[in-house]
Amino acid sequence: MTIKIVLDSGSDIPSTWIDQEIMKIVPLTVIDSNKGIEYKDYYDLSKEELYKNMKEGTVYKTSQPSPESFYEVFKEEIEKGNIVLCLAMSSGISGTYQSAQIAYQKLKDENNEDNVHIFDTKGASGGVSLIAVQLQKYIDQGHSLEDVKKYAEFLIDNLNSLFCAEDLVYLYRGGRISKAAKIVTGVLDIKPAMRINKENGKLESYDKARGETKVYKLLAKTMLEDSTKEELQKQEIYVYHSYSLEKAEKIKNIIEKEIGASNIFVSDIGCTIGAHTGPGTIAIFYLTKTGNFGA
Predict the structure, then answer these.
(1) What is the Cα–Cα distance from 216 to 280, expressed in whole angstroms?
(2) What number of other Cβ atoms are within 10 A of residue 113's Cβ?
(3) Nearest residue to 264 (alpha-carbon basis) of 244, 280, 247, 285
(4) What does the angle CA 34 – CA 39 – CA 44 come to, to the nearest 5 degrees?
(5) pTM, whole model, 2 decimals?
(6) How far is 62 from 33, CA to CA, in rounded Å?
(7) How far apart are CA 102 and CA 65, in angstroms?
(8) Which comes out higher in pLDDT, residue 231 or 293?
């Protein structure tokens, strides 16, 4: 039996990284509120188009995949004799995990099926990509299902996700920050350092700094507080950005200088997450520790 990873499109895993026969992507829906048009994330709408339209005033909303979407993918893999490991975006920011659970329960009721294993990653975007890539390497090494599940839990427990948004209007629209916070930060150029809370999986502001450079250095400082230089230097750190490669290169240079890390991968925040954080957002994903799992 083959262990097959299933992701939702909020994972933002680059399409060039995966073969759809190895990993499956279940898309969320991105909705153009101005025109009432719905798009399948990852397939129907480019990131460039989304961010360009957002800068011009288009408001986007998102909708989690239906349980039926997960059910169809799960059933297809089970009928092939595969074992499914579903890595869902944090339940603290999306109902995707719940949809996957409903789909699994339907399969179980129909066939007494136990070959689907769903994980709440407490992450999003590049954080889920990081877990998926490391887990696939571990699977490819031939480890048992039980060991793979233990490694998945280890990766989830040690995942750290930091964010900084350029314009807080998008987070305000989504209810992530208060109106007062939006006004103060905008007027004074105070930028909040944000992270996904590892207990509840929600996005939260934990500190702030005035100006872009200072908040980026604050994020690098946070990385060292979470982990150690030794751990950070020996792993691949993911820097994701929304239509802002110049900012991504800036934070990458700061991480290299402040931490000494050289293995830094830069990629894009996709449409689902970007619809809520807006253009100009920077995110950093890394592990507190890498462990002795051989990945």
Answers:
(1) 13
(2) 16
(3) 285
(4) 130
(5) 0.93
(6) 10
(7) 11
(8) 231
